[in-house]
């Protein structure tokens, strides 16, 4: 076990201690002998320094060690010196001899013992049981998934309800079957996210030899076997509401086909996650694969219409096999009466069925009933004997990818993101190299754009005494915080903070330290507050938030910013506009020197483990707050948490220097060492219930407070840490320390002094006409600075930028090559429409990329910058929306160029320009709907779960999948508010207008004519009617007539209730939807996150 800042009591619990110094062993041996060993090397341990701090100093900075005066031999300095001295000691010899002995209880010569306690089959069994337990206990996840599936099933069930056995329902019946497969694919694609969530647990338990990763993989797959079947059952409303075949055989065949497809797809997407390092990098291959699988399902582009160079993809597509099987099961076994509008010719004069035909694929001349089997064979190329063959193929996919997942999990390694690495921003070649970094490393350009702003030597630094010049006194009186259940988190707490004084806030866990700190900083969002907060005896100004600094315990920073940029943003937005820009930058450079972070000033802050270490992050946090020159108080919440003793002392000593320079400081601290507690001037000590047991000076070596407690309890021993002593005695149940404090003379003295501070001191308020503004910078300046940062954040995330570009490149190429240079026959006319629809299905994947970016910026604002009044909440929303636009438009341009001309659409400027405009608007629509979805949910996971449902609804009502004329009346109104219907109507009619359709021989419908008639004369009445479409390929024939269902593109799009005349209106309406989404994203952010926070603050 590794320990930071442990007490002597905790150290005494261990048998042995290992002390490492830069990878070299400084000591390994009994815990009771460690202190004496280093003292024997010549080091001095002060009586009140804990053993852990003393030992930690042996592995840290040499300046933290104090040699004894009576040295006979030089003390070790370098890590290698410590190791050499240890190897000379008896402890080393004892360690070597113990290591040579076999472990107790080990069988001699047994080298084949397994590294795992259980055999593999038991590991698989236990992992399976655990996965079941995970499913059952994580109710929120599976309830959300089940609820979403049921809602989707009800939506589709009502949309396609009661399908009749007529030919006009063949298309919608196939569309409904396609949606069954689509929902299955979307469910399966969620596996990649689940795999990344579970990966840290797997890696940890793998390292501890709980089980083999292969056992985990097999257990997960076995647990999926019944669980996935349950989720298929949630789709039952689709089957029964639509009116599929009402036989037991057909129903269970449908169920088995979907189930096996879901199992195959689940392990396929899981395999991608297993072989990908991060979830951000997995989105691209998962999105590409899902879209390719959907395209080659067999519905968007039927197998007869597939280009031979890509048609092989369907043989690797479980969704294709599933769709073919359920189509054969549902459609192939039926017979369908020809719908009225499909009969040719039709009218009052045509009463002989023998001289009519059904204008549907697979029809026979003279027959008005259509075999479902023939229809599927001609239209889709599906064959009866493929049904169960496809189930077997999906089963083989399931077995294959299960093996792949098992092998992949065995190869799991910790991501490189866990390595402690600092990344630096690249600099232009003219920039100076830092003396602390290699000369061949590029140093970044200073954003100040002025070399004179950075001091060239330490002697040129402004003295620290100029850090602040204020006489503001911050005080609070009888402060209480009560919850709704009458519990008190704070109870009648009083105190004050003065410039140049550093106050510690201590107490045992649960005493209310952080609660009091948040309350004083006006960041508390729960309960009812009573009492008063005062600045120089007056109520707090509106500028309180930006004029105080608050250093969070968990060091919240935007990971993509550099250290210098973080400080500069705080200085530019939180200091008054009256302060010259150059002076703000001078102050930032001064702080960089003061905080000793010059060597990392251009380092990317990153995240813990992949960026700055804990101490560096803490210094940056302090620097960000000092850059605002807080003239009221600097709050710090557990600034030494997670640091070793040397680093913690370094942070506290820095705070001491700041306090000596005039900064007012209040700091919560937990179990500080004697050296740290002595750095403070005053102490506010709390006990559970938020009650004060002492507030006042510590005194030299904490003697004042020790004397106070010694009057009522035992004295502090000379070798005891005063902080440990205070925490121990304040926890004694026999003494009511709150009452004791209220009855003490020290309390009376503090109350008298507090009343003095509470008197109005107008001369010290120092409020100018502009200093009391909630925000220091103007709105336009806030927009400019925050937008610059947001662009830098996007640009430095290469995974995001390249992922967006690569997705558009690959999907544009896939779409273009799938529908390459379409002709003007009937099959390719369908392809022209569905190629547009293929462009639409990139939306969900792009949304999954965009949502985390929006939520990242929002979390940064809410957790840090909102409370500090860095910038207005609307600035965040506007910049988050604006920064996405250039990258979105670039992606749309790349996709359109690769797709549009490859397909063979009209190249004249008016047509191509309109298509380009509409697709760029579609790209903006994707970004707007993604950001609106992100604005509605608190987490990335919740937003991405909702994304699938949102896009399913949007795509369902776009026109081609469920044409409005074939849609139940109860749903037709939805097309009026369906944004993608207007998009596809505009770009679709633009692509089809004036296109002359020429059917291939296989696409023609054949009917016979009576003796003595030609095709043209016999069908004249039919074509004279206003409801007819198409043309005769052989009008002069006298026996067999060949009829093409559509003569041009305008007739073709009429089946979707679309018109070329609406092309201009659709642009304006679609822009309106985009603006609506952006407006709602701003409004949702305010109502859900800002209004709620303000309401809680007022309460």
Automatic annotation (TrEMBL):
It is found in: Cell membrane. One of its GO terms (cellular component) is plasma membrane. One of its GO terms (molecular function) is ABC-type transporter activity. InterPro entries: AAA+_ATPase (IPR003593), ABC2_TM (IPR013525), ABC_transporter-like_ATP-bd (IPR003439), ABCG_dom (IPR043926), ABCG_PDR_2 (IPR034003), P-loop_NTPase (IPR027417), PDR_CDR_ABC (IPR010929). PROSITE patterns: ABC_TRANSPORTER_2. Residues 432-460 are annotated as: Disordered. It comes from the Eukaryota. Keywords: ATP-binding, Cell membrane, Membrane, Nucleotide-binding, Transferase, Transmembrane, Transmembrane helix, Transport. Pfam families: ABC2_membrane (PF01061), ABC2_membrane_7 (PF19055), ABC_tran (PF00005), PDR_CDR (PF06422). It is a multi-pass membrane protein. The chain crosses the membrane at residues 172-193, 214-239, 251-275, 282-301, 387-409, 833-850, 870-901, 921-954, 1067-1091. This is Acetyltransferase (GNAT) domain family protein. It comes from Aspergillus niger.
